[in-house]
Amino acid sequence: MQQKRDEGSGPHRSDAALFEAFMAHFPGFAFIRDREGRFVFVNPAMAGFLGGPSSEILGRQAIGLLPPEVAEISMEEDRAILATGQPFRGEELIHHPGGSRNWMVSKFPILNERGEIELVGGISIDISDLKRAEEALRESDDKYRALIETTDTGYLIVDPQGKVLDANLEYIRLTGHEALEQILGRSVVEWTAPYDLERNAAEVKKCAQQGFVRGLCIDYINQRGQITPIEVNATVVDSGDSVKILALCRDITERRRGEEAIQRENDTRTVINTLLRLSLEDISLDELLTQALDLILSIPWLAFESRGAIFLAEDDQVLVLKGQRGLAEPLRRACARVPFGRCLCGRAATEQKLRFAARLDMHHETSYEGIGPPGHYCVPILSAGKTLGVINIYLREGHRRDMQEEKFLLAIADTLAGCIERKR
Length: 424
Hints:
Elements lengths: L15 H9 L4 E6 L4 E4 L1 H6 L18 H17 L3 E9 L2 E13 L5 E10 L1 H23 L2 E6 L5 E4 L1 H6 L22 H14 L1 E10 L5 E12 L4 E9 L1 H28 L4 H13 L6 E11 L3 E8 L3 H6 L2 E3 L3 H9 L3 E3 L17 E9 L2 E10 L7 H21 L1
Antiparallel strand pairs: 1-2, 1-5, 3-4, 4-5, 6-7, 6-10, 8-9, 9-10, 11-12, 11-16, 12-13, 14-15, 15-16
Helix pairs in contact: 7-8, 7-11, 8-11
């Protein structure tokens, strides 16, 4: 064991061999100083750092052995421990010829038999490699986040229950909020569209169980009711003391629009091809028109009610009901024959242009008790400047006019015009 200053200080003689063996292998510095700041014990590592041998260190103060600024800080810490009896723990950066090193320092009071503070003990462990690793990890994390930001990707960390622990600005935007504080600690289901709530909660649970989720597409909804479709890829990260879920979320609004456009084009081609095939089959014109109506009402992306009608024009400028679905009996009687210019269908026939109404209004001249408040698309079927008929599709009250829906209906009307001419 390194020499003690006197027999009354430091470890008891009976414990010397054990203490010496322990301190000789301690992977850091250890020391004991008296109330005047003199070293009464140093372990081999500490002696080597101070430029030993220990016989030249014991009995001396830190001043003269450590850089002046380090020695003064160390002595000040000792004085605080002697005055308060409270231990000290902290990090210190020490500059020496081999370069700067980070140390984790722990100091504590050592009492004598009377319970008085007689000595100050301390240990220091070099944590420079750990600090460099932490810094490298921090730099890596910053680079990763920067990379994510450049791709307009939302970055999210949640706990296994789906509560937000951290997020970047893009993810905050996707939720319809402006600051992290507005979503911190809240569940992701709070801004999930109602129809995706159950599925999203199930996917969070699934991710926690299997360790990942890929390609999850759900809709978020903000406070104004605006929908934002997103794609989520998530992975469970086990940091030892806790389990977290890291998720990358992308706004797929444009992709969704592209997919919907492709679906609309495919559906439009399917209906047109089916109508052309039916026009060549041995079926009546009335049956063809009824099947055409069924095809129109079956399109899933159209926000139509399952009600509608198709009229054919007669020479006396009257629309005659030829096919219908879901019309009440009073309406079927009232609309069996509609003169050009009367009600929405008659006006569409006369004006030869599509008429739209979000709800019942003054242009609905045909009515009956309990008719309800639906809206309409009334689309003329035209050929060579002549009105051949009208397609009438029912809409939910308050439906917004949609150019894509109108484009589809006009394409079907043009196809029906050729089918009608062929069948007559």
